[in-house]
């Protein structure tokens, strides 16, 4: 459990941690003020600010905020939320004394880890080579609706509810950048031990789609026949599934990859390790679906590859260690899809509350 700050209340801490940008106010020895927006990370009793590689006219150690801190370590940092609904306005202001953590110090390394954990952009910046500003929090004040969500519209929940499953697409190309952003969303899914036990295959060429549909078709037919369905219904369902593959501008195949997982001597724990990987694959799929929805794209989820894994691997020439689990179709809906199936009320799904 993370220790609470001795200065900030739990409500103030939670608000501060959620914010992505703050304003740092410094002053020189003569009291002349200077304020800049900053990215920051919070730890109990401290706020860390990177001196990063965003374009600047002077080296990091010559920045006005740094020179001011060296002359006068007293600083103020404000993180605030402004929305048009003024009932949701809020801010947290911390005052304290600032200093510079130099590369090589243990706290400097810990601060860099926190900053990179909060801002993925820092993964590509050499912030470990520059000092980090450390603000020792001495006083905190706050105002407003600290515990309220960012907006009353709850955009994430709105996206979850607004996402729909699409089967028929317009013959409209999906930009490569949009596909990359969908994959980027999937990449940030939670995973056991951070191992990311999944790999993605992207299919856009017509001939590849045909090869994949042909490879999967016979297996589909066999499965449907085993269900005792009428031959005419079998062929109709096969054609529908085939059209879903061929008409979608983009297919994203989600594969399970177990080679990097922990290995246990007992079968029960090993089976649980695999189950965690499958759960993580589902989280990656949901991230991808929401990332698509957020860009105005439509998508559908097909589990058919799970029933013919070897056929799919052979059709695409994939590593045999990959286990295909699902296909996401991606594009622009031909029209509004049928109404989404209803969801059970929470009272039926939540089986325990203490």
Automatic annotation (TrEMBL):
<feature type="domain" description="Pyridoxamine 5'-phosphate oxidase N-terminal">
    <location>
        <begin position="9"/>
        <end position="143"/>
    </location>
</feature>
<dbReference type="Pfam" id="PF01243">
    <property type="entry name" value="PNPOx_N"/>
</dbReference>
<dbReference type="Pfam" id="PF00881">
    <property type="entry name" value="Nitroreductase"/>
</dbReference>
<dbReference type="InterPro" id="IPR011576">
    <property type="entry name" value="Pyridox_Oxase_N"/>
</dbReference>
<dbReference type="InterPro" id="IPR050627">
    <property type="entry name" value="Nitroreductase/BluB"/>
</dbReference>
<dbReference type="InterPro" id="IPR029479">
    <property type="entry name" value="Nitroreductase"/>
</dbReference>
<feature type="domain" description="Nitroreductase">
    <location>
        <begin position="160"/>
        <end position="332"/>
    </location>
</feature>
<dbReference type="GO" id="GO:0016491">
    <property type="term" value="F:oxidoreductase activity"/>
</dbReference>
<dbReference type="InterPro" id="IPR000415">
    <property type="entry name" value="Nitroreductase-like"/>
</dbReference>
<dbReference type="InterPro" id="IPR012349">
    <property type="entry name" value="Split_barrel_FMN-bd"/>
</dbReference>
<dbReference type="InterPro" id="IPR019967">
    <property type="entry name" value="F420-dep_enz_PPOX_Rv0121"/>
</dbReference>
<protein>
    <submittedName>
        <fullName>Nitroreductase family protein Rcas_3978</fullName>
    </submittedName>
</protein>
């Amino acid at each position: 459990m993370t220790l609470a700050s001795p200065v900030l209340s739990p409500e103030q801490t939670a608000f501060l941690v959620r914010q992505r940008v703050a304003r740092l106010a410094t002053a020189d020895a003569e009291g002349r003020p200077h304020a800049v927006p900053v990215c920051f990370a919070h730890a109990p009793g401290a706020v860390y600010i990177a001196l990063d590689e965003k374009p600047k006219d002077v080296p990091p150690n010559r920045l006005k905020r740094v020179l001011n801190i060296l002359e006068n370590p007293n600083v103020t940092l404000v993180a605030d939320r402004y929305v048009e609904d003024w009932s949701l306005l809020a801010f947290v202001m911390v005052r304290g004394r600032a200093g510079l953590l130099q590369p090589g110090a243990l706290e400097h390394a810990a601060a860099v880890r926190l900053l990179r954990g909060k801002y993925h952009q820092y993964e590509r910046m050499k912030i470990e080579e520059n000092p980090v500003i450390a603000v020792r929090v001495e006083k905190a004040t706050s105002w407003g609706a600290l515990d309220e969500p960012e907006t009353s519209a709850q955009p994430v929940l709105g996206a979850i509810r607004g996402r729909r499953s699409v089967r028929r697409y317009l013959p409209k190309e999906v930009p490569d950048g949009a596909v990359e952003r969908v994959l980027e969303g999937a990449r940030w899914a939670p995973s056991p031990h951070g191992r990311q036990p999944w790999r993605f295959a992207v299919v856009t060429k017509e001939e590849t789609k045909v090869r994949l549909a042909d490879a999967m078709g016979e297996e589909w037919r066999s499965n449907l026949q085993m269900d005792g369905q009428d031959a005419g219904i079998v062929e109709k369902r096969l054609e529908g599934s085939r059209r879903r593959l061929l008409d979608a501008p983009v297919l994203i195949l989600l594969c399970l990859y177990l080679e990097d997982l922990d290995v246990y001597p007992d079968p029960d724990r090993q089976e649980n390790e695999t189950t965690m990987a499958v759960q993580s694959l589902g989280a990656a799929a949901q991230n991808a679906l929401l990332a698509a929805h957020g860009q105005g794209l439509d998508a559908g989820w097909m589990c058919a590859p799970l029933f013919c894994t070897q056929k799919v691997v052979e059709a695409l020439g994939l590593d045999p260690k990959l286990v295909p689990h699902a296909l996401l179709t991606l594009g622009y809906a031909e029209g509004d899809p049928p109404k989404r199936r209803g969801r059970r009320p929470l009272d039926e799904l939540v089986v325990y509350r203490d």
